[in-house]
Amino acid sequence: MATLKQRRKTDRDRQQRWRDRQREQGKKQISVMLSLKAQIILNREKRRTHASTSDVIEQAILRLAEPPQIQNVEEA
Asked: Do 41 and 52 meet the contact criterion of CB atoms below 8 Å apart?
């Protein structure tokens, strides 16, 4: 059985490999501080879409660059 020190090293190595793979895909790590309201919305969207925090934030940012959708409202 691995000692606590060995498990920590294994965890650090695994996390570093994951970070390296993400960088190879052109991603960059950032840090943000969110309000409670933003956290609630983020968590709700993660549950709804079954996506990661990173995926939800990335999609939200990419949607900001899209031109606004014009909705046709028919007059009755």
From this structure: no
> In 3-state terms, what secondary structure has residue 29?
coil
Residue 73, domain member (yes or no) = no
Q: How far apart are CA 53 and CA 15, in angstroms?
A: 16
**Considering the domain boundaries, does residue 34 fall inside one?**
yes
The answer for residues whose C-beta is within 8 angstroms of residue 42's C-beta and 6 or more apart is 34, 53, 56, 57
51-63 pLDDT, tens digit per residue, is: 999 999 999 999 9
Nearest CA to 11 out of 2, 24, 21 is that of 2
